[in-house]
Specification:
Elements lengths: L1 H9 L4 E7 L17 E8 L4 H9 L8 H17 L2 E3 L9 H9 L2 E2 L5 E2 L7 E9 L14 H4 L14 E2 L2 E2 L1 H9 L4 H6 L2 H5 L10 H12 L2
Antiparallel strand pairs: 1-2, 2-6, 3-6, 4-5, 7-8
């Protein structure tokens, strides 16, 4: 099954991002029939492999969509869930599901100073777009121990490149960031993405293209 899921995702520029079996007695989300899920498979991307697929889908739509990337992800992962008898869930579902905790458990990752999980190969240039919940246990590879690159990064350029110091040891200054991005001085952020994120020296081969970063920044700055 995992090989078939991987192949189906690859056709859309997406990829399997790990998974695990829930422990006995664990508080779990429900599966397709409403029974507790026993296994979860996370779906996401690395780099910009999915970007051309998303753009082609977006251009084919007859009208504007408020959250097009979420909608595309739901369609793709939902179709996959139907094929494999699973329930599809999304990071934007309400009430929110613990996607970051699931991702850390499935992929063995830890957060960077920016809150984005640091991947030993992809750096900060990856994302989780959804998950498949199964009511039967499936064979899944256990998460391996991975190097947390932030531990070896002494200079921490990701905390020194933002003009308004939006990221710091005390957290993310959402209001200051939003005001700057929307203002006259925020043009570099609007067109090229977060300066702190782009300053990270890891995974640069997977950095999103400027058009993709501008898309995400526009969504962040939208009233």
């Amino acid at each position: 099954m995992i090989e078939d899921i991987t192949a189906a995702l690859s056709a859309c520029g997406l990829m399997l991002r790990g998974g695990f079996n829930f422990a006995d007695g664990e508080d779990t989300p429900f599966g397709l029939s409403g029974a507790p899920a026993k296994s979860i498979v996370l779906v996401g991307q690395a780099g910009a492999a999915s970007w051309p697929h998303f753009l082609r889908w977006r251009e084919s739509q007859s009208q504007a969509i408020a959250n097009p990337l979420d909608t595309w992800s739901r369609e793709v992962i939902g179709a996959l869930a139907n094929d494999f008898g699973a329930r599809a869930v999304s990071p934007s579902d309400r009430p929110y599901l613990p996607f970051q905790q699931w991702a850390m458990r499935a992929d063995g990752l830890r957060p960077s100073p920016l809150g984005i999980l640091m991947h030993p190969q992809y750096g900060l240039w990856h994302a989780y777009r959804g998950a498949l919940l199964f009511e039967d246990e499936i064979a899944l590879q256990e998460a391996r121990d991975v190097i947390h690159l932030c531990d070896a990064c002494i200079d921490k350029p990701c905390l020194k490149s933002c003009p308004v110091d939006a990221y710091s040891a005390v957290g993310f200054a959402h209001g200051a960031c939003l005001t700057h991005v929307r203002g006259a001085g925020g043009a570099p952020c609007r067109t090229g993405g977060c300066l702190d994120r782009n300053a990270c020296p890891y995974g640069t081969a997977y950095r999103y293209p400027a058009t993709a970063q501008a898309f995400h920044m526009a969504a962040f700055a939208r009233p």
